[in-house]
Amino acid sequence: MTDQSPSELASRTTWQKHTYNPTSSPTSLERLEEAAFFGFRPRALLPAVIPAKLVAAELGLITQAAMEAALPPPDLCFERHGELFASVQRLLTLASALYPDEKELQNAFLRWHNTELGVGDMIKSEQQPKDEPGVNWTKNDGMLTAFRKYVVTLLECKSDTGGGEPLVQALCYYQQHYQNGEAWRRSLLHQADPLPSLVLLLEGPRLSIHAVWTLYQNRIGYTPLTPSYYLANEPGATANLWKLVAVLGAYQQAVCELTQRYTALERSSMQLCQRKAALRQAACLKRVGRAQVERPCTLPYCLLEEALGLEDVRFMGPRLLYTAMQKLQGGAAKRAVLVKLVEGSYGSQVHDAWHSVGAAPALYSATPVARGGSMVMVIMEHLRTEEGWMVLSEGLREAWGQQLPAAVKEALRSAHAVQLPCGSTAAHADMRSPNILVRMRTDEGGAGMPEVRFIDFDWWVFGMLVLLQIEGREWMLAGPAGTTCYPLLLLSPDVSWHPEAHDWHLLERDLS
């Protein structure tokens, strides 16, 4: 990437040309050739940068802890939390002290980390053996590894007046450890796994935790896992102390689980590694006509599970939506599927009920993933363009488009008549054209009949009123008006919503 050392690169703006910024000139393809850092600067973009909890389950421990209230845990007990509470108090004391130089702060933190947390020793560069074969040591502020091969944790330390961009410096040390992509090229194990690592940034009395992982070669993704916490020695500031207890407790567990992850990786079968490596590499290629072009992509860890039997996984977008072929258990048959990852919950009952009357594609599974089940992985039938399916707006331009308004309204009436297992009926809350798929089916007698399927069941409420848009007109069909409302702060400003569709506004009939 460059002949500059990490500290030299991070102290100048030259590192910025290695960030992925497709909106800048020159062309996106030329920018990709230079790019090595894929993260939030200047903007985190799918499919390279996905939520950390989907990169690796271990990372979700820290993001979950960072979101919790700064209060004592509900299961507080001395045996579980007392020792860590005291350790955090000692950390606040040492981090708030005055140090003559950066090295003194670095040494004090390393002593605290290695004696207090019990997760293994971070070793700074001058303590690392220089002549051990097969080990690529780098000049860093501290590194904890598994098998002296995989980076588990990196420390980057800056004094109050330290210069440069510490996160960039840490990312460069991660790259150097893996020989700027050479380890990836030579090792199937490196290709089979994103090699997630934690980065501790200690900037004077401030601590933050970040994640870094490998996309392919020397291309790496990164994201913050926590905000920057002041390690303030203020005995009365218990909220900050309890927050650090939660976050550092999660850090302890994440380090242990990452070490276990790399132990399992070392013991993985050749067949399993070949499968995962092939999936990850194929996902980084995008079909453009008959050619394939490079497109950095991080596949969510749950899509790589062998039990799912997914093949040829490709990012479809614009959200966390992927196409794939799925092998059916007990045979060689395959089916085309869409895999969608949604935050919170998914309307599985509604989706299944509507599919039972032919108003939705088949739903194969909806499984909680990520820590605490905070996301749902939805696998459903893929209605492909090569099978004639298109969005409603395209269908209206076809020769048979005049049949669609009546067909869509009839399909929606059938769906609204279906009772759910709980005895209630349900309705979709976003019936814009992108969520209505149509095609013309010809029967044995040669007569054409439109088929209609509704998708995107993130939006649903029992008895909710629905907005249906066809040919610029709005039909309000379904449940009781004036009793339900859209959720707060969830409506995208980039979507042309009905004038009365606002967060927290009641849904009402408008047939004008």
Automatic annotation (TrEMBL):
Residues 1-27 are annotated as: Disordered. It comes from the Eukaryota. This is Protein kinase domain-containing protein.
